[in-house]
Design a protein that fits this description.
By secondary structure, the protein is α/β, with parallel strands linked by helices. It is about 35% helix and about 15% strand. It contains 14 helices and eight strands. The longest helix has 15 residues. The termini are far apart. Pfam families: Abhydrolase_1. It comes from Paraconexibacter antarcticus.
């Protein structure tokens, strides 16, 4: 039987740095292990950099310079809807942070959900910048014909379709949805569903205190509304900054991990990875994990990342 979940670090365990990008946008991020090989950790929705709280210290101890930002519109980064919230806009932010602000010519990356889509775009948009990527339970590129040739469904699985009603409202009815959530408590309660009753995560993966920790940044009306911008971009309700790198097979070396206790992701996600990535390690199914794998199985996630990227680490 699995043991108890490891305790999460204190909310104040890591200091937050704020840097202004050449574009003028300010991003907030955690940076631990400066001098190690740069490893960029990219959260999704409804997450912030707090998703990585359990793995930041062990990854830094292993020799990585861990960079865990809040995406634009999330957490402690700028919250506004004046700019774009699509994959390309996020990818350009992250390249500017890691390359222009922190001075790294290359990096490794990890991400799930929206973050996984962003880093796929990042690796294809900036040739040679991403040496390797670690993906889990993330959105996948649109490769309709290739998936069909592999015998994979063209339509979402019925369970996924049923669980994805939030996508429609956040994408096509975002203002009305935000207007219904009038208090910080209501906004946090809305986000808390995705850590509990919506069955994204593995059963028992989040205590009440964990959910409080994850939802606290979404008490802000501005940040919750801004976070919907990603869904508006995906449903054409908000313009794109530019065409995403989202319609081609990726040759970036990829480690794929899949938490099966996830009702919002395609059940055949592992098989889709075999189509979408030419240099693929895995996919490996991680039992007792769902949508939030670095939080639910932090030791396993850390071990997998270190093993996959070990040869990139500085020699000691």
């Amino acid at each position: 039987m699995p043991g108890p979940l490891p305790p999460a670090p204190e909310p104040t365990a890591f200091g937050t740095i704020r840097s202004r990008l050449p574009s003028g946008r300010e991003l907030a991020y955690v940076r631990e292990g400066a001098g190690g090989f740069p490893l960029l950790l990219v959260h999704g929705w409804p997450e912030t950099k707090r998703l990585w709280w359990k793995v930041i210290a062990p990854l830094a101890a292993a020799g990585f310079e861990v960079i865990a930002p809040d995406l634009r519109g999330f957490g402690e980064s700028d919250a506004d809807l004046d700019g774009f919230h699509d994959l390309a806009a996020h990818a350009r932010d992250l390249h500017a942070l890691v390359h222009d602000v922190l001075g790294h010519e290359r990096c490794a990356v990890a991400g799930g959900d929206l973050g996984g889509g962003i880093i796929q775009d990042l690796g294809l948009r900036f040739d040679g910048f991403v040496l390797r990527q670690v993906l889990f339970n993330c959105v996948m590129p649109i490769l309709t014909e290739a998936y069909a040739a592999a015998g994979l469904a063209s339509e979402p699985h019925p369970v996924v379709r049923q669980a994805a009603d939030y996508f429609v409202r956040q994408g096509r009815d975002a203002d009305a949805l935000a207007a219904e959530l009038t208090t910080g408590e209501q906004r946090r309660r809305y986000v808390a569903q995705f850590y509990g009753s919506r069955l994204w995560g593995t059963p028992g993966g989040f205590t009440r205190a964990d959910v409080d920790f994850m939802t606290e940044p979404f008490a802000s009306a501005a940040h919750l509304r801004a976070s919907f911008g990603n869904y508006e971009s995906a449903t054409d309700a908000r313009p794109l900054s530019e065409k995403p790198h989202w319609f081609a097979v990726s040759d970036v070396p990829t480690l794929a991990l899949y938490g099966p206790d996830d009702h919002v992701m395609y059940p055949d996600w592992p098989e889709r990875c075999e189509v979408a990535f030419t240099d693929l390690t895995g996919p490996f199914v991680v039992r007792r994990a769902g949508h939030f794998l670095p939080w639910e199985r932090p030791e396993l996630f850390t071990g997998a990342v270190v093993s996959y990227l070990r040869d990139l680490l500085p020699r000691r």
